[in-house]
Amino acid sequence: MGIQFKNVTFRYKGYKTEYKALDLINLDIAPKGEIIGICGHTGSGKSTLVQHMNGLLQADEGTVSVFDIALPNKKKIKLNALRRRVGLVFQFPEYQLFEETILKDVMFGPKNLKMDQASIESISKASLKAVGVDASLFDQSPFRISGGQMRRVAIAGVLAMQPDILVLDEPTRGLDPVGQKELMEMLFNIHKTHQTTLLIISHDMDVLGAYANRIIVMNQGQKIFDGDKDDLFSHPEFDQMNLDYPSSIKVMKHLHKEISLPYKMLYTMDDVIRHIKEHSHE
Ligand SMILES: Nc1ncnc2c1ncn2[C@@H]1O[C@H](COP(=O)(O)OP(=O)(O)OP(=O)(O)O)[C@@H](O)[C@H]1O
Ligand SMILES: [Mg+2]
Fold it and tell me: Ligand 1, from 46, 92, 201, 217: best to mutate by most atoms within 8 Å of Cβ?
């Protein structure tokens, strides 16, 4: 078992106010092999949801189990074990870099796990390599590289903990198109190599369409869809979900309507072009 939510409700509590940010969520996530996209309107509860997956937030009602650890749970040992298995990369993680060098920053997490020095260093270097940070940068300050590189370093810091499940809150936000593609390809490679389950929060339906196989849609603290992406984009109530179609689907719908090109659910523009070529002689 990976992650399981049972009837989870969570409220943010202010001095005199309460806000129900999660409302009776049920969810099952496999320990390996999934790429799950999470989308939904701003304020719908996406970040709140994923913060329950490594115990940063704990349910007011219902339970979350992560591998064999049941939450709510206040024991520090249990929470640390859980945070090792579920790596959470926050939105704009680069703001959390703080060490003098890139390598030291990545080594910070594994050091806290009390691994021996040689393993800490080799795992950290391997994680930096996996995210495409060149060895010539290891001893540089993390504050003297570009924003896109800083984000890679921050992700390497989470990878170095060798999590079983990797959760990323809007990983491509604010990156240029090339940087977005590189980052997503890198995450996809990690998934392919280790079958790591990835959960990716994104407003970008092109990203989710291209990489996710399952999509969860949040709306006002509730999960309103959870399933195959083909089923989402052909759902009769899609228009009420406040979501956009991936560009490839928009183009396919347009070509189907205007020139009667046979419709097919496709998720990249390369696939659309191939499809057009295949039917261009008909
Ligand atoms: N610390 C907090 N205290 C009180 N309310 C909060 C807090 N954090 C979030 N909320 C509220 O809970 C709701 C869900 O917030 P959350 O951050 O999970 O949404 P989100 O789907 O991640 O949105 P976005 O797409 O903008 O990142 C929002 O209405 C938000 O205003
Ligand atoms: Mg959020």
Answer: 46
